[in-house]
Amino acid sequence: MEDPKRLEEGTRLEIEANGHQLKKDAEYIDHEKNYDNEQKMRKATLDQLPEADQEQKPEMKQKTKRVATLDAFRGLTIVLMILVDDAGEVYPRMDHSPWNGCTLADFVLPFFLFIVGVAIALALKRIPEVKYAVKKIILRTLKLLFWGILLQGGYSHAPYNLTYGVDMKHIRWCGILQRIALVYFVVALIETLTTKLRPTSLKSGHFSIFAAYKWQWAGGLVAFVIYMITTFSLYVPDWSFVASEDDNATRYTVKCGMRGHLGPACNAVGYVDRQFWGINHLYTQPVWARLKACTSSSPSSGPFRDDAPTWCRAPFEPEGLLSSVSAIVSGTIGVHYGHVLIHFKDHAERLKQWVSMGLILLIVACVLHFTDAIPINKQLYSFSYVCFTAGAAGIVFSVLYIVIDVYGLRTPFLFLEWIGMNAMLVFVMAAQGIFAAFINGWYFKNPDKNLVHWIRQHVFVDVWKSERVGTLLYVIFAEITFWAVVSGILHKLGIYWKL
Questions:
Q1: What confidence category does residue 229 fall into, taking pLDDT thresholds of 50, 70 and 90?
Q2: Strand partners, 240
Q3: Which of these, 30, 117, 337, 405, is most buried using a 10 Å CB contact count?
Q4: What sequence ranges are listed for the domain Heparan-alpha-glucosaminide N-acetyltransferase catalytic (predicted)?
Q5: In 121-247, beta strands by DSSP E
Q6: Could you give the dihedral angle defined by the CA atoms of residues 434, 70, 105 and 168, in that order, rounded to the nearest 10 degrees?
């Protein structure tokens, strides 16, 4: 018979062992529950991230709702670019202003920079890993620079010249995508590096959002100060250039020796580019050649007047270094509109913020321009030009938001959304003429007898008996409508070209 004491001791040890095991099991279950909860919270957080954020971790991509107004505005900008680039030759007043003033074409690039800023604010709303985000920003900047130099540096002769290649002695380093790259890099970097300083909620007051993002505005202020000080204080000496006409090279000299000049010949913007890039690497067909001082055909292009100033034949970079520094302010204003979209959920409050700022910017621009203090000038990217185009962008963005997101009238603007979702593809293929060049490569007997020329001439110009009307209709139907359909098909197939 077992000893009762031994039985009691054994029972006690068994109970303690079982209790210890139950405790371990309970701890394991708690650990599993905590792990499951963490995974659910992580998934919920990812579900709230914008599309660009989710791209940072490909294995955790989640479908999110796109901002319809953002795509529509981007698509509208691409449409405007195609329209002014291809119809501007027959409608000069639609083309870029020869110097002071603002035409339809002059809104295109600032609208791009504005919407880049809005997209940056949304894409970098949450940053899981700063180092990874910085790496992505640098990579995207390099991609934009590469495509910009390839398409506008002189290597591509699309759409009409079927040759390719560029003399590195005359390659153009600046361009539209290069300017977008610089603005994107600076604005996105500031947004990323200040991620820990962002507020989760705003204080009361109309100006609280400005205080909450003071570092972004500080970046814009630094760009503004650099531009203004350089523009009005830099001494511009006399300079010379060589122009070729009828295979004859002639050297011309431009007399300057002044500061703060905002005319074509002696401004600091051109001087900085001549010194930094070298005069051989600047744009050789500046729009100032259409000024009355240069040609009797103004505002159209034409032969130079006999008494035309020497600078009429000179190169000038419209997307140069100093003017691109000023363009950073356009991106900063776009980021502000994106911040409003993030922090204010009520339609009325968003529109109050957007429209009030847009109107203030337009008023400031008009005062500066009409008092001749700082004229609106796209080539110099003057401060009044920044305010005028950013204010216009804010108003247009607000109108699209009211129509598409508030009233839900999305169907009439779907073609803009489709183009906006594949903006890079349409920019390269349509606005830069790569697709037209491909079609032109299939010609009959000589390069002038190609499908693009035949459609334009026989289907549009000859039918309407007007070069101007025929060209405009060709651009609307054979280019814009065509690429809207292509973009719509690609959207249905889930195909997007992104950098």
A1: very high
A2: 253
A3: 117
A4: 66-210
A5: 235-236, 239-245
A6: -40
